[in-house]
Amino acid sequence: METTLNQYDTLRALGEQAHARATIETAASDFRVVDIGAGPGASEYSPFFESLATHYVGVDLDEDIFENQWVDEQVHGSAEEFAAKHRLAVAAGESEPFDLATAIYVWEHHPEPAKLLRAIHDVLADDGTAILITPNGLHPFGLASKVLAKLDLTDAVLRRLRPEEIDHYHFHVEATRNTVWGVRKCAGEAGFAGVDIALHDDPGVFQPYLPERLRSLPVAYSKAIAATRLHALSGTLIITLTKGRPHDMG
Fold it and tell me: Which member of 5, 32, 142, 231 lies 3.0 to 4.6 Å from 135 by CB, making a disulfide possible if both were Cys?
């Protein structure tokens, strides 16, 4: 495990690695990508994966999936529903497994993350890769999110700090197993052979949620965990799962 500087730079680098494995190592011409929880499309990564994929599918429970112009196919529904239909389509010769699945800030919203990973596992090719990003449940932000959700105070707090999230893209936080150990356990239960977790801490991810006078706190916290090497307390988990044999993630 290691610290990383930029979560989306890391995501794109991991996507490049997955593309290389799927196309160069296997001499395949196709690179099929599915984004679970794709929403209307994210400028930080959707254009990148659109440029890599020969077929790019977006899946989301929210109807804003129909606003996503980056994907070739928009699917309104849960990951589990999509996986069940996809299995039937593959069995009938009407579709193909995916080489890469992404789920960016989805894990923490799912009440049963092992089921989410099982659905992702089921849509992947035998040597497929999944990349997920989720807040670390051991970070103060992750802990606070979970407590506020348990107390049913999340909407009230966000409406005060970031009202645009309530209006456009806020979903209930579950955060049941978003720790290094929870991820590893869920990945094993889902059948993944390889698990790699990069620990990322970027104060800029959390500063917008704080009043101006408190925005130096994430910076101080990040410096503290770097100095003490307590990287397990970093803010974000960047997770790479491989369905077949484990890969060297560099």
Answer: 142
Closest CA to 76 of 57, 100, 93: 57
pLDDT in the model for residue 154: 59
Coil, strand or helix at 36? strand
Contact assessment for residue 14 and residue 127, using Cβ atoms and an 8 Å cutoff: no
CA 219 from centroid of its chain's CA atoms: 24
pLDDT, averaged across the chain: 86
Domain parsing of the chain, residue ranges: 3-242
Would you say 121 and 192 are in contact if contact means Cβ atoms under 8 Å apart?
A: yes
pLDDT digits (tens, 9 = 90+) for 193-208: 999 999 988 888 877 7
Q: Assign domain 3-242 to its CATH architecture.
A: 3-Layer(aba) Sandwich (3.40)
- Give the pTM: 0.85
Cβ atoms within 10 A of the Cβ of 222, count? 19
Phi then psi dihedrals of residue 25, to 5 deg = -70, -30
Q: How many C-alpha atoms does 120 have within 13 Å on its Cβ side?
A: 35
Q: Which residues pair with 236 in a beta bridge?
A: 135, 200
How is residue 231 written in tokens? 């990287």
The span from the CA of 62 to the CA of 45, in Å, is 19
Sign of the CA dihedral running 238, 65, 98, 181: positive
Q: Phi and psi of 50, rounded to 5°?
A: -60, -35
Residue with tokens 């996986």: 83
